[in-house]
Amino acid sequence: MQSRFQALRLYPRVNTQLKFKFDFPTQPRTKYSILPNLIPNRQFHSTHNTKSEFNSREGFERDEFIGSVADPGEREVFRRDPNDETALEIQNLLKIRRDSSVSGIERALQLCKLSLTDDLVLNVLKRHRSDWKPAYVFFNWASRCGIESGYSPGCGVHNEILDILGRMRRFHEMTQLFDEMSKRKGLVNERTFGVFLNRYAAAHKIEEAVGIFYKRRELGFELDLIAFQTLLMSLCRYKHVEMAEFLLHSKKNEFPPDIRSMNIILNGWCVLGSLREAKRFWNDIVRSKCKPDKFTYGIFINSLTKAGKLSTAVKLFQAMWEKGCKPDVAICNCIIDALCFKKRIPEALEVFREMNERDCQPDVATYNSLIKHLCKIQRFKKVYKLLDEMEQKGCLPNARTYVYFLKSTKSPEEVPGILERMERNGCRMNSDSYNLILKLYMDWDCEEKLKSTLDEMERNGMGPDQRTYTVIIHGLYDKGRIEDALSYFKQMTSMGMVPEPRTMLLVNAMNIKLKEEREAEPEGKGLGNNADSTRSSSRRGKKKKKKSAL
User: Fold this and answer.
1) What are the CB-based long-range contacts (under 8 Å, 24+) for 307-312?
2) Which residues of 50-88 are buried (b: 16+ CB within 10 A; e: fewer)?
3) Does residue 296 sit in helix, strand or coil?
4) DSSP conformation class of 130
5) Pair 15, 71: CB distance under 8 Å
6) CA distance 494 to 132
7) Which residues of 97-131 are buried (b: 16+ CB within 10 A; e: fewer)?
8) CA distance 261 to 249
9) Among 49, 61, 174, 226, which residue has the least CB neighbours within 10 Å?
10) 438 and 432 in contact (C-beta within 8 Å)?
11) At 21, is the pLDDT very low, low, confident or very high (cuts 50, 70, 90)?
């Protein structure tokens, strides 16, 4: 049968694994954030440096690499970061010696006679973002070993290990390291505070987040409005909007509210999904001395669409045009996505047409909203037309664009064609895209491709992460392979990852099932009976198969 994605296969099918050496900023699914525009750019706004060495192709050398995702047997020459080779070897060493003592790991690292640089250390750390123990051991070794060789980790390396520790809730080690950084000049910067604010807020440690904000003064940093707005953003990002609003009002003498601060709180209520609170705060803004700007309108329109008040949102959107307050592309994207979600695609295409006529240039998120919903109703002719239009206008598709194609695939044979076009446009993959492909291969029962994708993901320093293990554990359970699923769960927890609640429920159910079957075994049957019991468990697991969520 001819593939529905035949149009994507424009070039001979070469090894597509090198296409998985990708990295790109993840785009929200349906949230069109305008907050990055609210505050002047500072390093501490994000805990991920999108301009790291992994995004640069400069200085790459030609190397050979065995691909594994689409055609595991082929070889392909590609351009890769020269640090990757060394970082991969260190990664493998840390993995093999994971259960060794710290002193044993450090001795093994010492024998490697590495030439340490910030780029190399960062490369290794970023490969262990979901596995804090080897990352911390390597960082401590590099810090001590560097004294002899003249290498001293910079602020970027320190901020990266802080972020890893914070992500895994290792706040004791995080605070200890911060105290050491504070004693040395030049190691603490704005991003350091940003890491702490985000990680404390994510762990619901509000007092600690406010405390680290006021610690700026002790370390010679100014307590200015921009820093305060970053604190508000971190709190709102992790659903502590009420506390953020309280701080906004209680600190108004110290940090006089402006429209940017008000927009952060309004956006927080919007993201929280509370239209009632969003309306209340919208009215507060209107009554205040702060004049609403287009970001204020955009946030409130977004809140209305999320609450299902699409007609009201469209009226406010049209009123903006009439009042001469020109909506920006983020606001247009919000309306288009909401119309598509309500299956009012002709109206969404009309807004898309008006954007072009009114000199509001669509961006990749605009096209992604249309492509996502057109793929769902299988209007692939229109999808390809939009894809071609993107390429012609220089608005190159990102990985999320191709995710919608991948989600529409029906067989493993359709995947390589999509990846080839992805590579052609220079699009880089991240862990989310890897996890989707793992999910597809799991559903299709392609064990060889599943394993090779996992290996590839690890080689490129993008996992496995919590989502990877969640996909595998639930997928194995669906196929009745309970003991294999529990084995992956053990591996996941040994790396310090916190399972999702649904995964914990599933694991508890699997453990109860295995315990009941072992207790029900007739005495004296030995290992043979245990194997029969496992197969019996597998058959029952298949009968109770559930569909794993993406």
Assistant:
1) 307/273, 307/275, 309/275, 310/338, 310/339, 310/342
2) eeebbeeeeeeeeeebebbbbbbeeeeebebbebbebbb
3) helix
4) T
5) yes
6) 11
7) beeeeeeebbebbeeeebebbbbbbbbbbbbbbbb
8) 11
9) 61
10) no
11) very low
The predicted structure's pLDDT at residue 76: 38
Q: How many CB atoms lie within 10 A of CB 93?
A: 18
Q: Tokens at residue 116, please?
A: 């340490």
Residue 537's Cβ-count burial label (10 Å; 0-12, 13-18, 19+) is buried
- C-alpha distances (whole Å) from 254 to each of 207, 228, 246, 249, 379 are 18, 10, 13, 10, 55
DSSP 45: G
Which of 163-177, 259-273, 461-475, 528-542 is predicted least confidently?
528-542
Determine the average pLDDT of the residues in 436-461: 90
What pLDDT shows up at residue 81? 61
Residue 505, token pair as written in the block:
């429920």
pLDDT tens for each residue of 115-156: 899 999 999 999 999 899 999 999 999 998 877 778 999 999
Q: Which of 147, 148, 157, 81 is nearest to 118 (CA)?
A: 157
**Can you list the pairs that 474-478 forms with residues at least 24 positions away whose Cβ atoms lie under 8 Å?**
474/503, 474/506, 474/546, 474/548, 475/439, 475/442, 475/443, 475/548, 476/442, 477/506, 477/510, 477/541, 477/546, 478/541, 478/542, 478/545, 478/546, 478/547, 478/548
CA distance 278 to 288: 15
Mind giving me the DSSP string for 202-270? HTT-HHHHHHHHHTTGGGT----HHHHHHHHHHHHHTT-HHHHHHHHHHTTTTS---HHHHHHHHHHHH
**For residues 148 and 176, what is the distance between their CA atoms, to the nearest angstrom?**
23
| Mean per-residue pLDDT over the chain, rounded | 81
DSSP 182-196: HTSTTS--HHHHHHH
- Please give the structure tokens belonging to residue 331: 């606001």
What are 341-366's pLDDT values in tens digits? Answer: 999 999 999 999 999 888 889 999 99
Residue count of the chain, please give it. 550
Contact 404, 368 (CB under 8 A): yes
Share of the chain above pLDDT 70, in %: 80
DSSP 8-state code for residue 11: S
Distance CA 256, CA 288 (A): 12
| Whole-number Å distance between alpha carbons of 340 and 350 | 11
12-33: buried (b, 16+ CB within 10 Å) or exposed (e) per residue? eebbbbbbbbbbbeebeebbbb
Note the pLDDT tens digit of each residue in 377-400: 989 899 989 999 998 888 889 989
Cα separation of 388 and 383, whole Å? 9
Dig out the tokens for 272 from the structure: 């929280």
